[in-house]
# Entry
Amino acid sequence: MIEVRDLKVRYAGRTVADVPELDVGAGECVAIVGESGSGKSTTLLALLGLTEGAEVSGRVRVCGVDVLEAPPRELRRIRGARAALVLQSPQAALSPATRLGVLMRRALRLHGRDDGEPAMALAMEAVLLDPAILRRYPHEVSGGQAQRFAIALAIALGAEVILADEPTSALDVTVQAEVVGVLRRLRVERDLALLLVSHDLALVSTIADRVLVMKDGAVVESGPAARVLAEPAHPYTRELLEALP
Amino acid sequence: MTLLRAEAVTLGYGRRPVVHDVTLDITEGGVGLIGESGSGKTTLARAFLGLLTPISGNIWYGDQILKNADLRAFRKDVQPVFQAESLDPRMRVGRSVAEALPRNARHRVAELLEQVGLDPTLAARRPHELSGGQRQRVVIARALAVGPRLLILDEPTSALDVTVQARILDLLTGLDTERLLITHNLAVVERLCRTSYVLFAGRVVESGPTGDLLAKPAHPYTRALRDAVPKLGGPPPEARGRTEAVPAATGCAYRLRCPLAAPVCEQPPPLRELDGRHVACHRAQDVPVS
Amino acid sequence: MTHHAPPLRRSLPRLLPDRFAAFGAVLIVLVVLAAVLAPWLAPYPLDEVRPLERLRPPSAEHWFGTDQVGRDVLTRILYGGRTSLFIAASVLAVSALAGVTLGVVAGYAGGWLRDVIMRVTDIFLAFPALLLSLALAVVLQPGVNTVILAIAVTWWPWYTRLSASVAASIATRPYVDAARCLGVPAPLIILRHVLPNSLTPVLVQLSLDAGGVILTAAALSYLGLGAQEPTAEWGLMVQQGQTLFTTNWWVVTFPGLAILLTAFAFNVLGEGLRGALDIRSGGARQERATQEPASAERPRP
# Structure
């Protein structure tokens, strides 16, 4: 579902992300780990063509579309509908004066879907949210609910790929466990491809099949999660692991 | 006698209490205060710092009630370490550190910065010119300037990268002060605190030695917290009970989330002793051990 | 991860490509220079009256023509800028000093002190600004000083309101709590932490307001309550030339344009500054939230 070769993102001549290879298949979960400034979020944004003002080279295919070549219209069709982005604080991305239900209905219509109500009900069920929440405004729901709503929105639109940037790091641990549980289940039930950006190695180790470790814009190590985290080859990966409290 | 102690304090802003009837002793070896956002842990910290007066109950500073005590002595004894963002964005960090120093002791700024592992030349920088970890060290240096006996640490590392976090924790463990650590991060509490209190909806639901608390939690909420923390290579974190249920207004506040809730939980649970700790749960005996 | 404020290098161009703001800034610099250098720039002495050259249309000798007593309009506009800018600067200095001082104290202290200060402020705000200025100007001797006093009296409460709401939000910042825990006395906390961090929105507001003050001063002069003959002042020039508009348009039009351009320049600069500073200053998002209602509900005089 995601296929990246020799992706380079440059801002003002400086390379901020350099990813030689990254593949995520249906039903797979790949995690990019690293600290702030490692380029992990930039990589994620580049996959959806959202790195404005940057010089991007290489080959990026998401859901069969060449992101770097495709015309903006085609990109917009992919974004949201087939490949959904889930951010750290979704509340900030939701229009504050619009009820969640209205928001979801609009999004469905925007992508030419006329099966509004049943799709919404199913999506809300998939993320274990009470449909009554659709009548609330963004500020009236908790962080965990907002995050699951963002996932429900992706599900309703029929996303095949979810790109999540630190989706749980602003949440309490118990809530984080719940959101992670939802993501894991959807991955199996719907064959979702999941690309997760996170700084939390422990969390990543429990959910990802493969891991890319990034530092200063470069991938320093990658491979199956179990191997990378059990026998880290790169000193930086070791440092990250030792830092776990 | 402990330096600082809360006795049956109820705290709130305006009329609505957010912390109910909490008794907490800041004993030796570090005390952890664990809770999720909205549990009232930061409000409690503000009361311990004398920034908030209890609606009822007392904060004891030695053998005096805090609001009647000598504030100058108190401010020298008890200092906060907030998140790295607690530096004035417009002030050079050296001045921030020097703020509490008498005029003739300004030379100590360099000493203090060195003590927290910073190059003294950084004193001329402003906060945004430092990394998150460096800022957090400055915050610690500022607190150490008055020579406190107790540090009240409010999520001191949660905004930092893991490698930086580890170094800050090393620094904090090496300091010769008592500490009250407020956090939602159980792993950090385990490292820094001999005793811990778990707060839910403004009430202490369990307290006791940190090791015991995490090894065999007696309260279903403590257990839910522990099991929700992902462990390296471990099983996926588990969500126990419904996390989105609001705290119940009557009876046990946790009962709407609790997988063990029973009719008896509609009565408020008393805080009772069990296996060397205090727990407020009717069904503590039924909490599975592992 | 943590989001830092963008470095200056990236936000400075945010102001510069805003061509309107840059245009405003250039215009203001020109107006100020013209006013300061008036004695050297002016083609004729300030009060030189040439009865024989009354109401001459714009020409090579008199670019903006002459007025009804034969004075060069360009000369009077250059000197008039001094009066208008002096009035604006004085009003803003007095209002900001009084308003911000009261505002940060109210915002930081909260409680009864805030209530007292804000109620007094509300009383001043309850009077329609122009009417209060008018009443004052009628009671006192008309003149430049009266204009300054009359406008400042109605202007300062806005700064109290603005800075009180900003200071109240600054007062809850962790660095203020940290200072309190260090035992720093309240006046020093206000001076060191609250005041400097509350100033950004005030500066923006000052720039936005300068145009308003110039307009109000011109209005008072126009009504005969401000600057008096023979002082060169733009509002006064418009008033004295108004009957001639259909026959000798230049007598009214050029001072009118001077008022308009200067007020406009301050406004666009203020808007530009607001946009740029909101993004630059760390944690400015909350400041913006508290600042906008205050400036949005402000009537344009």
